[in-house]
Design brief:
The structure holds two protein chains of two kinds.
Chain A (H helix, E strand, L loop, with lengths): L2 E10 L10 E11 L4 E5 L6 H9 L6 E6 L2 E2 L10 E4 L11 H10 L9 H14 L15 H13 L5 E5 L7 H18 L2 E6 L2 H7 L2 E6 L2 E6 L1 H6 L4 H6 L6 E8 L2 E4 L2 E7 L9 E7 L4 E3 L5 E10 L3 E7 L8 E6 L10 E6 L4 E5 L5 E2 L2 E2 L1
Parallel strand pairs in A: 3-8, 3-9, 6-7, 7-8
Antiparallel strand pairs in A: 1-2, 1-4, 4-5, 9-10, 11-12, 11-14, 12-13, 13-22, 14-20, 15-19, 16-17, 16-19, 17-18, 20-21
Helix pairs in contact in A: 2-3, 2-4, 3-4
Chain B lengths: L1 H32 L2 E2 L10 E2 L2 H8 L1 H34 L4 H13 L2 H12 L8 H8 L12 H29 L3 H9 L4 H29 L3 H7 L11 H10 L6 H29 L4
Antiparallel strand pairs in B: 1-2
Helix pairs in contact in B: 1-12, 2-12, 3-7, 3-9, 3-11, 4-7, 5-10, 7-9, 9-12, 11-12
The chains are: A alpha+beta, B mainly alpha.
């Protein structure tokens, strides 16, 4: 099911009586979610992503704008008639019902011509349970299940009525680190098997990047960027997106463009031109360099004050500082294959041009450039 | 190990002393009294041991009347008060404006003195040569003949007693149920809504099971409280309940101890033990039924 959002806006009245300004949780959303994809709605807490999900499932009404499932306008359709499945952050499994009864619950709501016989319901419940691999646990109560198993039951309950859209609210946040890795692959597998358009909300960029077909990065109610995870990572539209994606995070420096060259302090990093070949005006800029954009080099352009070297086995993280750095410490990841000894007070790096992003100091928007 | 045991007993000592003195000992004493025939409290003597006290009490028409009254009271007031309290709590829980005000209003009867409320009820229901009372005035509007609810026919008096009991016990039930309802997480309702659950089904399949421990608690204490009713009847019909045909089991016990015909602790004890047996039986039945229907999280 294709989902289209048109000028979707949700305002909440301000609690603060002195400031009568509304809180805009979702600000003018316009985008189209293609059929059968897995979409990650990503942003820091309080950015409005859960509100966006509530608008999609119908628990909240938008202030303005439209939501279309396929060609149907569902904006004014109440939640119960939208045919969406939702997995809540705390799963919301009915504690007094067994796993089987929990999964059958949505089916038992069907009335009139859709009413199912008990056998059909049980068969469907079993099918959904098999899909998430909990068919052994059908007679347990939710309190007798682990967090990961509860999560699966919640997914099975959301899937059993074959929803047009599946929504997941922070599906992995209540799981421990190992289970999180396993479950996110599970979600990916289930989504692929069923082909149901799935939207999930998360504040964990790694989670979103790893399994989404498309990620939507949000901040304070506004969509910052939509795209395939790798594209968004490689071409962030602004400083917020660049900072939000990637672990360790991007290293940010205060720098400047001077006579067609990019400077951090006194170090001249690159010669830059604008994308269309003309020279870029002299101006102060914010420079972001991805941790993997550093190459150890004795005649490297950027000199950093070495703090320590962390050996991770697969690679080495060089931790250092620089007076112009906006991060407390600069983390650069280099391959451990060269067996380099890093000693002394300073370390010199050459910079990979395609791992460098330049942002306007005023607007935070990315300035396109080509390196010479 | 021994040392630790001794310490544990030491900690328990105050509670054991108090409970032993004021609960266990009197209970045993009452049990013994109930078998002592012809006990005289002045001389502290008795003729023999046997079941005569029970036989006397069970053949006493006043006691049988009290048992009948008590059972009618229990059978009507417990379901009606619990059901009404549930309805009102659900209503209170689903309104937003002035919720606190309503909750306070519904709780007011709880902090009001029973006897004072009884007086008000008497004025409302009583028919005197000078006035028919407010309730009778209302009945009059609907073309019904005035009834003396306080000194009139049995059914009218019973009605007032039940009405009054329901009114008095409701606030506490509403208090317990509103807090139980408020503790049911909104997520369950959201999940149910998305799955297209009707309001009725949400109530029977989610709300009721979730608040069943509180509901069950109210039913058990409601039964016990109604079986032990006494002051309500006094507030409405005065102290000579036997004459008013409105006595309760506890009222009978009291009369046997201190009433006009008082001075019979053995009969009082036997009646008290019979009441104890009834309450115990009913509570056990309740517990058995609840095992199937109450969901403790």
């Amino acid at each position: 099911m294709k989902i289209t959002l048109k000028n979707l806006t949700k305002k909440f009245p301000s609690r603060n009586k002195k400031v009568r300004e509304d809180v805009i949780a979702v600000n003018d959303f316009n985008f189209e979610i293609p059929d059968g994809k897995l979409i990650g709605l990503l942003g820091p807490s309080g950015c409005g992503k859960s509100t966006a999900l509530n608008l999609l499932c119908g628990l909240q009404k938008p202030t303005s704008g439209q939501i279309l499932f396929g060609e149907d306008d569902v904006t004014d359709l109440p939640a119960e008639n939208r045919g969406v499945g939702m997995v809540f952050q705390n799963y919301a499994l009915y504690p007094h019902l067994t796993v089987k009864k929990n999964i059958m619950f949505p089916l038992e709501n069907l009335r009139g011509k859709d009413k199912l016989s008990k056998e059909v319901m049980e068969a469907k419940a079993l099918e959904a349970a098999k899909l998430v691999q909990i068919d052994e646990l059908m007679d347990r109560k939710p309190s007798e299940l682990s967090g990961g198993q509860q999560q699966r039951v919640a997914i099975a309950r959301a899937l059993v009525k074959m929803p047009r859209v599946l929504l997941l609210d922070e599906p992995l946040s209540n799981l421990d680190a190992r289970l999180r890795l396993q479950t996110r692959e599970e979600i990916r597998r289930i989504q692929k098997e069923t082909g149901i358009t799935t939207i999930f909300v998360t504040h964990d960029q790694e989670e979103a990047m790893s399994i989404s077909d498309i990620i939507v990065v949000m901040e304070t109610g506004r969509i910052q960027q939509i795209g395939k995870p790798q594209e968004v990572y490689d071409n962030p539209v602004n400083l917020f997106v660049a900072k939000f994606l990637g672990t360790p995070p991007i290293n940010v420096f205060s720098g400047r463009i001077e006579n067609g060259s990019l400077f951090i302090g006194t170090d001249k990093i690159l010669n830059v031109k604008s994308a269309d070949g003309t020279s870029l005006a002299d101006q102060p800029v914010t420079i972001g360099i991805r941790p993997e954009g550093f190459v150890l080099s004795d005649d490297g352009a950027l000199t950093l004050n070495l703090t320590e070297v962390e050996v991770m086995g697969r690679d080495i993280t060089v931790v250092s500082t620089h007076p112009e750095s906006q991060n407390v410490e600069i983390r650069s990841i280099i391959s451990s294959e060269n067996h380099v000894e890093i000693t002394g007070d300073t370390v010199k790096f050459a910079i990979k041009p395609h791992k460098v992003h330049i942002f306007s100091v005023e607007t935070g928007q990315r300035i396109e450039f080509t390196a010479e | 190990m021994d040392n630790r045991n001794n310490k544990a007993w030491l900690y328990l000592l105050p509670a054991i002393l108090f409970l032993g003195c004021f609960m266990v000992y009197p209970l045993i004493d009452v049990f013994i009294y109930s078998f002592e025939e012809g006990y005289n409290s002045a001389s502290q003597t008795y003729f023999g041991v046997g079941l005569y006290n029970y036989s006397y009490v069970l053949h006493d028409p006043y006691f049988l009347q009290a048992v009948k009254n008590t059972f009618i009271l229990v059978i009507f007031t417990v379901p009606v008060s619990t059901g009404l309290a549930l309805l009102i709590s659900v209503g209170l829980n689903s309104i937003r404006p002035l919720k606190e005000l309503y909750q306070t209003v519904y709780f007011l009867p709880y902090v009001t003195n029973t006897l004072a409320v009884g007086l008000v009820f008497m004025i409302l229901f009583k028919k005197t040569p000078y006035s028919d009372g407010l309730i009778n005035l209302i009945l009059n509007i609907f073309g019904m003949a005035p009834v003396d609810f306080i000194d009139g026919p049995y059914w009218a008096k019973m009605f007032v007693l039940c009405f009054y009991t329901v009114w008095v016990v409701m606030p506490f039930k509403i208090l317990i149920l509103t807090s139980a309802l408020a503790s049911v997480k909104q997520d369950y309702y959201n999940a149910a809504r998305i799955d297209g659950t009707s309001r009725m089904r949400m109530f029977t399949r989610i709300t009721l099971p979730m608040i069943s421990p509180s509901l069950f608690y109210l039913i058990i204490t409601g039964f016990i409280g109604a079986f032990k009713a006494y002051s309500d009847a006094v507030a409405l019909f005065g102290t000579d309940l036997n004459a008013a045909e409105m006595n309760t089991i506890v009222g009978y016990v009291y009369d046997m101890l201190y009433g006009n015909s008082g001075g019979y602790p053995s009969y009082a004890s036997a009646a008290a033990i019979i009441l104890f047996a009834i309450v115990l039986t009913i509570t056990c039945i309740n517990l058995l039924i609840s095992k199937k229907h109450v969901h403790y999280s």
